Amino acid sequence: QVQLAESGGGLVQAGGSLRLSCAASGRTFSSLYMGWFRQAPGKEREFVAGIRASAANTYYTDSVKGRFTISRDNAKNTVYLQMNSLKPEDTAVYYCAAARVRSVSFPRNSNGYDYWGQGTQVTVSS
Q1: pLDDT tens digits, one per residue of 76-91
Q2: Is residue 96 exposed (0-12), middle (13-18) or buried (19+ Cβ within 10 Å)?
Q3: Distances from the Cα of 61 to the Cαs of 4, 11, 25, 69, 126, in angstroms?
Q4: How much helix, strand and coil, in percent to the nearest 5, is found in the chain?
């Protein structure tokens, strides 16, 4: 079992930055794929960014490329999401998720993840 706890959300003006953190406990963190998802009111949960267990590869949805950076520190059992140049449309609850490695394909669908955090609210004002 893996427990995930996000932190770092808040209210920021458009153009500002936030860094989300997700601390993991339980199963060996370094063996898991990690992802960040978000869900805005009235919308489906969407993939934002992901990182392989070794951190050799990262993945982003098109709308955040060049603005968001995902990273992980396996020694600290923590994954981060650095969010720069934030826009009002980035407003959502952000979730950290962990996936057991089942294939070489990196999961971008929420169904591919086994463990979820409770979420942290990010609000970007215009």
Answers
A1: 999 999 999 999 999 9
A2: buried
A3: 22, 22, 27, 11, 22
A4: 10, 50, 40
